[in-house]
Amino acid sequence: MAATQTVAVIGSANASHHSTTIDEAVVISDYRELIRQVHAFVAEQRSRGLDLVDDSFIDWAQTEWDRGKPSPLIGVASEPVPTQQSPLQSLGRLFILDVEYWYSSDTESEFEKRNRRRVRRSVPAATYQLEWLRLSKLDQHYHVDDIVLFRYEDEGEEWISPPHVVVSEGRLIPRSRGAVGCHLRYRPELEPVLVSDAAAHLAAAGLAPSLNPGCLRRPERRDVLLSLWREF
Hints:
By secondary structure, this protein is of the alpha+beta class.
């Protein structure tokens, strides 16, 4: 959030429920001229019939974004993340990571069931959720926009999770012998896919069907594999 004595601009994460699917912001101000300018800007876009993002629009949007970024405020501590300073993000590297599926014991399940609070939502559930990934010092470290697919075994079948997108750089975890953690963004409604089905999907496209842990370096393999989930 950026605020002055007359204007507050709330970033996408807190703007509204629609922020989970599109980039947006809310302008709060009692300065009528500013509100008029915002309305004029929206009306101009509508008059242009702007409903398609092409290269020229991306160049224009990037220029406007760079020009409008707020300057650091003196006396206010911050830690900018350069790769997150633009709403125009591209796909990063794709990794497959082996994990062990964790089951709650009967005692743990009963305890969670008896102590779970009933949550009453007055607004729709968020489209995206965050998850924390802890990595040891020797593990592969990921960068913002990298995509991680988790491969695991459940009830005798091998599964591969929906895409998890890295949204923060790794941070050292105190007193952890060099371990780091990062945040992942994912869509909870997406379903995992059988590894055999994912391999068949790659083979049908004429690509190598192997899904070994590590980085999928060929962009065409990445794109075909991610096409198993239409939106992520």
